[in-house]
Specification:
With about 350 residues, this protein is an alpha/beta fold. The protein has one domain (about 1-205, about 245-340): Alpha-Beta Barrel (TIM Barrel), CATH 3.20.20.80. Helices cover about 35% and strands about 20% of the residues. It contains eleven helices and 13 strands. The chain has helices at about 55-65, 75-80, 90-100, 125, 150-170, 200-205, 215-220, 230-235, 240-260, 295-300, 315-325, and strands spanning about 1-5, 20-25, 30-35, 35-40, 40-45, 70-75, 105-115, 135, 145, 180-185, 265-270, 305-315, 340. The chain has an eight-stranded mixed sheet. A hairpin with a 5-residue loop joins strand 8 (about 135) and strand 9. It starts with a strand and ends with a strand.
Length: about 350
């Protein structure tokens, strides 16, 4: 279990007022409402492969020992859709049943196109068609173990599966056992700042989308206000990273929007962080994810995502506090799904 200190009590209830969980904002402050009442998560997160039935007894023992009221636990696209278009929600059923038995709420983590920068939880039938669902290409043409955000077929398949999950929750969870859903897991790429494949390069050499040319967005990125331009012309030295952040966020925003259209639970994306003080180059961390320097890009690209959540694995309090400052925004409720030391 990884400790998770989560912002926005009442005890778990088997009956509610029919109102689904939601995040509200008032006077610059945010709260999570469950059955119409403020709810404070005291939570823990299961390990990556601990969502399976055989592992759950240990998980519930840990949750009870922690006196937690919420468990973050993964569900896996490769299990949910082991065959194209055929969905298996048995794992979801098990989690819902055992969550209610243990009087613990759930936050489901959708391990799908991205899991820590890779696509290892994609269904096997997609992995067998690498040309249809490709990974990104590095600057020098080398293959990179990270999915391309420019693959429409993969994006649509993920969106279809995620919408099916959300539809099943809507039907099977009237008690609101599930409070939130994380869409993907620490998306982005290690080993290459962006995708340099021919298709990606063509997009990179094209015009920056209008959503990023709005004066408030450019100002928040410390860029001069312009009305048009290529990624290189508008963003200069940051063009590669900003292009990748837009591409990853746009893909995940599409997936999130498909699920939210079916069942509008709060949705979030977690981020593997960069050093918030030293401003390191993008090739030293997971580029394309929702790091502090590209939050405005993510907000513009993925409006269906309710919040961007930092996973803080840092040994210094100065760094951790700086992260909190960056993510505690009027347009972004502060939510810390994972914490721990880097040492």
């Amino acid at each position: 279990m990884t400790f998770a200190f989560m912002s926005a009590g009442k005890i778990f209830s088997q009956t509610g007022d029919g109102t689904i969980p939601k995040i509200i904002e008032k006077n610059g402050r945010h709260a999570l409402l469950v059955d119409g009442q403020p709810f404070i998560m005291l939570g823990g997160q299961a390990h990556n492969s601990s969502g399976w039935p055989g592992m759950l007894p240990q998980v519930w023992f840990a949750v009870k020992t922690m006196n937690a009221n919420t468990l973050e636990v993964p569900i896996y696209w490769e299990q949910v859709e082991a065959q194209p278009g055929k969905f298996d929600f048995s794992l979801v059923d098990t989690l819902l049943k055992q969550g209610r038995e243990n009087k613990v709420h759930l936050v489901l983590l959708w391990f799908a196109t991205w899991k820590n920068g890779s696509n290892h939880y994609m269904p096997e039938w997609m992995k067998r068609e690498a040309s249809k669902y490709p990974n990104i290409t590095g600057r020098n043409g080398q293959p990179v173990d990270s999915p391309s955000p420019h693959t429409k077929a993969a994006m649509e398949a993920d969106a279809k599966a995620f919408a099916a999950v959300m539809g099943y929750l809507k039907k099977s969870d009237p008690e609101h056992t599930v409070l939130m859903v994380q869409v993907e897991n620490e998306p982005g790429s290690w080993g290459s700042v962006r995708d340099y494949s021919p298709d990606a390069q063509k997009l990179f050499e094209g015009q920056v989308p209008a959503e990023l040319l709005k004066p408030d967005v450019l100002k928040s990125l410390n860029k001069t206000v312009v009305t048009k331009g290529t990624w290189q012309e508008v963003f200069g030295d940051n063009a590669d990273e900003y292009f990748h952040a837009w591409s990853v966020a746009r893909y995940i925003g599409y997936v999130a929007a498909a699920g939210k259209a079916v069942y509008p639970l709060p949705l979030y994306v977690n981020a593997a962080l960069r050093d918030p003080i030293k401003n390191p180059p993008a090739n030293t961390y997971e580029s394309g994810g929702a790091t502090d320097n590209v939050i405005p890009i993510w907000k513009a690209a993925a409006p269906a995502i309710d919040l961007l959540a930092p996973d803080i694995y840092m040994s210094g309090s100065e760094q951790a506090l700086k992260v909190i400052v960056f993510y505690d925004r009027s347009d972004n409720p502060l939510f810390l799904p994972q914490t721990g030391s880097s040492q």
